[in-house]
Specification:
alpha/beta; Rossmann fold; 7-stranded mixed sheet; two-stranded antiparallel ribbon; 6 helices; 30% helix; Adenine_PRTase; purine salvage; cytoplasm; Adenine phosphoribosyltransferase; PRTase_dom
């Protein structure tokens, strides 16, 4: 896939990757944090990013987009709007006001819990799950499990960035979850 940005012959994945900032040793020493905020700040880059996802999913029979707290909210809400779908937030523990279900998981630098409203979707609804990146896969897998527990079908999980050296994308796929990522930082 080639970029449609004037004067650029970069593939979309290279174009998006080139606009992601790497912050060394954050939030812990040794972690190379991939910061997507530069993608969001530039109007052209943000539009290209959103369009990649919208074009991928516009002809699929989806009912909802679920976004993972917090950066998955940004992208997920915009994609849901563009696809004329509802949006479901998968939140960090203690952030939802109604009856919730929870799933604990491991991060690359600790553990956490995500929650979902127990009535976030109806059995059989087809859901696209969105987050900013896949590192160890824990967040994506936990969010998918929550959706599946209330009867949703996770059609595909999607993220901007894959960090394949951390093994998360492999684990997501081993759980039977289809996964799409725009770019990766393998060997970077």
């Amino acid at each position: 896939m080639r970029s449609d940005t004037p004067g650029s012959d970069l593939p979309y994945s290279d174009y998006i990757r080139s606009r992601i900032r790497t912050v060394p040793d954050w939030p812990l020493p040794g972690v190379q944090f991939r910061d997507i905020t530069p993608l969001l700040q530039d109007k052209k880059t943000f539009r290209v990013l959103v369009d990649i996802f919208v074009h991928r999913y516009m002809d699929q029979q989806l009912d909802l987009v679920a976004g993972v707290d917090a950066r998955g909210f940004i992208l997920g809400a915009v994609i849901a709007y563009e696809l004329n779908l509802g949006f479901v937030p998968v939140r960090k523990k203690g952030k939802l006001p109604f009856t919730t279900i929870a799933e604990e998981y491991e991060l690359e630098y600790g553990s956490a819990t995500v929650e979902l409203h127990a009535d976030a979707c109806q059995p059989g609804q087809r859901v696209l799950l969105i987050d900013d990146l896949v590192a160890t896969g824990g967040t994506m897998i936990a969010a998918a499990k929550l959706l599946q527990r209330i009867g949703a079908e996770v059609v595909e999980a999607a993220a901007i960035v894959d960090l394949p050296e951390l093994g998360g994308s492999k684990l997501v796929r081993e759980q039977g979850i289809k996964l799409f990522t725009v770019c990766d930082f393998a060997g970077h």
